[in-house]
Amino acid sequence: SVQTSDYNYREKGICISTNGSEPLFIIYYFYSGDATSSYLALPYQQLLTDEYNYLVLSSKSSDDKYWSGFLLVGIMNNTTVTIYPSIVLNIPQDTQNKSSINILVKPGENHTIILHRKQTLYLGKNISSDITGTRIVSDKPLTVISGHEAGSVPSDGTLESMAQQIPPTQLWGDTFLIVPFAGHDKGQYIKVLSSLDNTKLIYNCGEFQNESIICASEFHRFFVPSDTYCYLEANNSVLVGQFAASPSDNTDGDTTMVLVASLDQYSKSFLFSTLNGTSQDHLNHYISISVPSEYFNPDNILYDGEIIDIEWTAIYDGGNNTIGYGCSFEVSQAIHTVDSKGRLFVMVYGFRVQRAYAYAAGYMFSPEGALGLKFSSDIYTISEED
What we know:
With 386 residues, this protein is mainly β. It has no helices and 28 strands. 0% of the residues lie in helices and 46% in strands. The termini are far apart. Mean pLDDT is 88; it is low at 371-382.
């Protein structure tokens, strides 16, 4: 079956802003007796474009009743949104009509709707469906949240809620360092999603090397053991999701997912908080840090103001060249900082039996076309006076 939120749930968006003097760090954290999930909330950027493209990232589930889906939130009024589903979806014919019927839209077809500021639309499908690769095109920026109500990776493992906010394709990258999850000995699956045809992936994971070519809206998935670090590059910009592998016996933390930053999205300073349930439902918390080789100096990388006393692992490309370094370690339930004179990436996560969460501590987006002037008319008259 397929699912869509009806008109009565359309006005559900919220807006969070400051006066501009202080930045905000916002983490969405969902916790219940059955599930946990989290993601870093991204500020929207209006780019120099009339077309924003988003691709959904999700998974399957070992239980047919749970939904693989995505949520759209309007940022500006009169946003035109066209949806190109990767599986059959049930979409409102007119999102602005309270009496609108829903229509089935199949892969290869598309349907266009309108969303206004803070209006929402949820679309999903169950019965072991994976909505990954569904394409969303809009003429104005959107907030796009994708994930799974109770996914499993691989599809026969234990279940956990997963969600991440998806940036537009203009903010994707092409080179990645992948550091394995600590505190989780089941390994991880890497899922790479492309927005362009003939995208060539090359990845080196210890002694394992491979290449793959994928087309627009397609993905490539591969398994990485729990002690293995990877370097991945592509000839086009891609989106990389890192999924903790689902255990089959409930003896380890559940699956979770996080978006891996590309090297050009690394930053110098991070402020972040670990997340928890109740005092009776304690999670073990960890962070993973990756650093490009040109910025690597252990004496200049500080955790809570102190040099990190840990052995770093070198990460190599296919030519055995050192591309970067990574490490992972357990941290306390608290607010923490990581600072460096160079650029790095920090991933925050936690595990316990039947629980998991993960999120990126931050991204530094520098997209092509993000800065400049965009005019709303073709001709302007300028007068110069003395």
